[in-house]
Amino acid sequence: MFFRLCRDIFNVSASRRLTQKHRSIMEDGAQTQPLFSFGVIADIQYADIDDGYNYSQTSKRYYRSSLQLLGRARESWSEAAVKPDFVLQLGDIVDGFNKRHGASQRALDTVLREFGSSPELEVHHVWGNHEFYNFSRSSLLLSKLNTRPLSGDPAAACCSDIYAYHFSPVPGFRFVVLDAYDVSVLGREKDSEEYKRAMSLILQHNDNEDLNCPPAYGKQRFTMFNGGFSTKQLDWLQSVLTSADDKRERVTLISHLPVHPFSADAMCLAWNFDELLAVIRSHSCVVCFMAGHDHDGGYCRDEDTGVHHLTMEGVIETPPNSDAHAMVSVYKDRMVLKGSGRVEDRVFPFPQ
Ligand SMILES: Nc1ncnc2c1ncn2[C@@H]1O[C@H](COP(=O)(O)OP(=O)(O)O)[C@@H](O)[C@H]1O
């Protein structure tokens, strides 16, 4: 609640080649047209089941209509005057209930078909907790939800078992997809070292019988539905950002779990959000952090770094007569987010 209050107060193939459009805009410095643009959508959580509620029965979940909302997002991206170069899907593409109904693959195919009916649309997928309710980590790595190959560079991936990679759609700009469940009990075999380490971390902070039930104030994030970033991934991110600093690139980080306490409910943060924030703080290139998971959405601009932390509103808790997607236009000195439905319009000036 405290965090929500603070947050409200603070609420103040994509072509890797430089296209003729991008080049002429960069050369004449005109800012009327964006350098490039991209779409954003989060927490679609599609399932072919009747509407329901979240765990605390406070928010309705529209499992079937999430597909129609995705369809409208795709239409708005494909009808835009300047078409997005790519789309960021911020995780939880299908709901965990699919598993129970033996419908995981069918639901995924259905959603991907809805994304894919516009063939030129390049989608970068992030993995959320609901991906792991439906699929093992190894099967996700073999699935269409592994979009590492879109980077076009095998060296752009963190490592084989961590789903993190970076790509540069246009010179001067870079996006880093992060794996917020790299340290988690989700997606890890019960007898693996990774599972045991993650479980022991939860148990250090959470003494509830049900480990999905959040512990006391300040530790709410230590539940089984969250996770964190390993030292290996943080070291890799350091090296990606050091190189981006050297090249004076503008970097956007993408993760299912948010990392800024003023951008989301405390229950939704990555376990070691503070370590990720420390990495951001030690570099000048990061301009924005985009996440999903908290279906109410959120935003803050970090006071120290000027980095914008956006948590996108979740499609799953958006009524059928509304929408939850965005189009972001990127200029030399800022990004302009045009929200649809319950996603607010925002301008993200880049830190100097
Ligand atoms: N407060 C809670 N106490 C116990 N279990 C919970 C609680 N909140 C969520 N869960 C369980 O954790 C899992 C993930 O919750 P869910 O709300 O579906 O996640 P998401 O916000 O990612 O959609 C579900 O199995 C849900 O029943």
From TrEMBL:
Leader sequence segment: none
One Gene Ontology term of the molecular function aspect: CDP-glycerol diphosphatase activity
The keyword Manganese is annotated on this UniProt entry: no
Record-linked InterPro entries: Calcineurin-like_PHP (IPR004843), MPP_ADPRM (IPR041869)
Keyword list, A-Z: Hydrolase, Metal-binding, Zinc
Domain Calcineurin-like phosphoesterase: 37-295
Protein name: Manganese-dependent ADP-ribose/CDP-alcohol diphosphatase
Organism: Solea senegalensis (Senegalese sole)
Source organism phylogeny: Eukaryota, Metazoa, Chordata, Craniata, Vertebrata
